[in-house]
Amino acid sequence: MEFDVDRIRKDFPILATQMNGRQLVYLDSAATSQKPRQVINAVARHYRKLNANIHRGIYKLSEEATAEYVASKEAVARFIHAKSYRSIVYFRSTTEAINAVARAWGDANTGSGDRVLITEMEHHSNIVPWQMLAKRKGAHLDYVGLRDGSELDLEDYKSKLLLKPKIVAVTHVSNVLGTINDVKEITRMAHEAGASVLVDGAQSVPHMPVDVSGMDADFVAFSGHKMLGPSGIGVLYGKEDVLEGMEPFHGGGDMIRSVDFQESTWNELPWKFEAGTQNMEGAAGLAAAVRYLKRLGMESVREHEKKITLYALEALADEHVTAFGLGRDRIEERAGVISFDVKGVHAHDVAQVFDSEGIAIRSGHHCAMPLVTRVLGEPAVPRMSFYVYTKEQEIDSAIAAIRKAREVMKLSS
Ligand code: C6P
Q1: Of 270, 294, 318, the domain-final residue
Q2: Torsion of the alpha carbons at 106, 209, 202 and 44, rounded to the nearest 10
Q3: Which H or E run contains 22?
Q4: 382/319 same-domain check
Q5: Same domain flag for 103 and 211
Q6: Residue 231 CA: which ligand 1 atom is closest?
Q7: Contact (Cβ atoms closer than 8 angstroms) between residue 100 and residue 238
């Protein structure tokens, strides 16, 4: 099936709107994706037809709401090739999912003097929870360095594994560089060294086929809002035996089997990790998002983004604009995220000119301050990011905006 971007765009109402009097050009999908009407309708349908608390009512509507919620988990499990929905825990976001692992798994499995290994290309969500764990437990936090500010240094990784970390936490795709890490190999090496593995899939699961069973990581975290779904729902995939062996992260209603005045026992998977009333409409929307992406085919989504990314990298090179990350010859290892530097123009000025042209991009440290400020040596960088609805003409508009930014700066200096 041909990847028909114009037809896809018709499903996204917001893309027909304007920003600053211009047709919106949305190049900030790494921050959050736009939503197709199929997802918007699924959320509305939940409220119109299926709104009741799950697992609680002995009445038909509650049973139907529960069935919809479980079906959502089954759809997510199939989407990422998990063996069962028992491995799929819903949290608010990638951030909350990683915090849950750092707390519930980390507290039980790390002690004073133990090591936790992460990398210099992590998002704050995959740094701060481990720093907090290290503080609580008196553990050491080690970082795998980068080669040429673009990719993980696997020799450094090997040497850090000799320190016998308890867990390796690594991003699948960098939200700044777009580098795709070989998480299957990283996981294999970690397991060989006796470490557990958490993969941050926030920027991979929405954009490429991801097979968590083949990858073999113990945990994979990702967010609904970056994959066409609603915000406020995120996924923690965990191997069943690993989740079985963990204590819950939150305590409250529904996550228990029984409660007495002093003691409680836990519900079965995955409910043991879901305390209190859940984001039921979010689950309905996420299922619709997964259906939408499956219909497009994740191979095709990846191919489309590769094409757009290559087009953008070539256009930037023609303009003598520096793009961070791996070069065009390494496109197989690059996702649809480009941070760049327009020499002589501050990142925020670039973003402001883009904004005046109706083009939404992000500028800053992208919640990856150690990478941007320490590794790239920049206070801030502008970033374009792409998705299923991104067109080549939108890249052309971005290039025109870069020319305008240079012009404006020349005039004001
Ligand atoms: N990155 C960006 O503009 P949440 O906010 O929990 O849904 O996702 C956090 C997160 C974790 N890991 C990676 C690799 C990410 O890119 C993000 C979110 C957005 O780059 C917002 S800061």
Answers
A1: 294
A2: -120
A3: strand 22-23
A4: yes
A5: yes
A6: 7
A7: no
pLDDT beyond 90 at 170: yes
Domain end, chosen from 294, 313, 339, is at 294
197 & 306 share domain: no
Tokens of 210: 């991801």
- The residue whose CB lies within 8 Å of the most ligand 1 atoms, and thus the one to mutate among 95, 121, 231, 286, is 95
In this structure, the answer to whether residues 25 and 174 fall within a common structural domain is no
| DSSP assigned state of 81 | T
Atom 19 of ligand 1, nearest CA residue: 31
Question: pLDDT tens digits, residue range 347-391?
Answer: 999 999 999 999 999 999 999 999 999 999 999 999 999 999 999
Q: What is the residue type of 90? A: Y
Same-domain pairing of 187 and 111: yes
Number of folded domains in the chain? 2
Q: Is any ligand 1 atom within 6 A of the Cβ of residue 119? A: no
CB of 94 closer than 6 A to ligand 1? yes
Among the listed residues 367, 376, 381, 398, the single catalytic one is 367
Q: Which domain holds residue 208?
A: 41-294
Residue 335 has pLDDT above 80, yes or no: yes
Q: Does 210 fall in a domain?
A: yes
367 carries an active-site annotation? yes
Does residue 72's CB lie within 6 angstroms of at least one atom of ligand 1? no
- CB of 367 closer than 6 angstroms to any ligand 1 atom: yes
Instruction: Please choose, from the candidates 121, 168, 123, 185, the residue with its C-alpha nearest in 3D space to the C-alpha of residue 326.
Output: 121
If one residue of 34, 124, 198, 223 were mutated to test the ligand 1 pocket, choosing by the most ligand atoms within 8 A of its CB, it would be 223
Whole-structure pTM value = 0.98
Separation between Cα atoms, residue 223 and residue 93, nearest integer Å: 5
Q: Are residues 349 and 391 in the same domain?
A: yes
* Cβ of 73 below 6 Å from ligand 1: no
**188 domain residue, yes or no:** yes
* 36 located within any domain: no
The helix (H) or strand (E) run that includes residue 134 is helix 128-137
251 and 284 inside one domain? yes
Does residue 360's CB lie within 6 angstroms of at least one atom of ligand 1?
Answer: no
